[in-house]
What does this fold into?
Amino acid sequence: LKIAESDITFKRKPVIIIVVGMAGSGKTTFLHRLVCHTLSSNIRGYVLNLDPAVTTLPFGANIDIRDTVRYKEVMKEYNLGPNGGILTSLNLFATKFDEVISVIERRADQLDYVLVDTPGQIEIFTWSASGAIITEAFASTFPTVIAYVVDTPRSANPVTFMSNMLYACSILYKTRLPLVLVFNKVDVAKHEFALEWMEDFEAFQAAIETDSSYTSTLTRSLSLVLDEFYKNLKSVGVSAVSGTGMEAFFSAIEASAEEYMENY
Ligand code: GTP
It folds into this structure.
């Protein structure tokens, strides 16, 4: 993403944190934890909910897609199923996204972070035109970072880990934004195994080769791709439930925002 010199109304703050992750990885619980952390640490946060289908949010959103688009009515009007309804609601909201940017710009001096919750089904945001429009609208105005939430206990299986990392990798290349891997649920399973696999190619090979159903040439090639990917990101272990890792998370976000300011 290149920004022309003439467009430099670019501000250092707030930093936009777009939270994505597989269904059930703990995005909403993590966002709730982030909101609690900002409130108790005098960090000035602003919350944007982009999930039109969520029934109850455990935190208050400053801007909520549900105030503008009625997901159930969109489903009825366009005769759509649940995913089509969410996608169309997001498309409708994206057409007004310049207004959201203006609201945040007006408050920019009073904000440190904008926390963005995305729909439960990850691909509705990451593979849709409206997701791309929203991401680009943010990234051309403010430093923007992707927080990719990983269900750590579910990723202890090396094949699941690899497919999750390949998905994160595709998001990095699609958005070209700094990405922080957020290993969530470390109260259930520590994320050290993941750090080891990310740092030591041979250790990951050894783990994945215990699964005889995978051809070693394919997994070897894929893990080489991932080895390159790991060099481009930061990772932290957190527990959205216990609150572990919040400082480390915000440090990683700050470092990513610096990287953004230097490179984009
Ligand atoms: P969808 O948006 O519905 O796809 O889910 P999500 O990614 O927002 O996940 P959600 O926050 O609903 O959490 C999914 C489940 O994981 C819930 O049962 C949470 O209580 C649980 N969970 C989330 N974070 C943690 C954590 O840090 N530790 C533990 N033990 N459980 C967690």
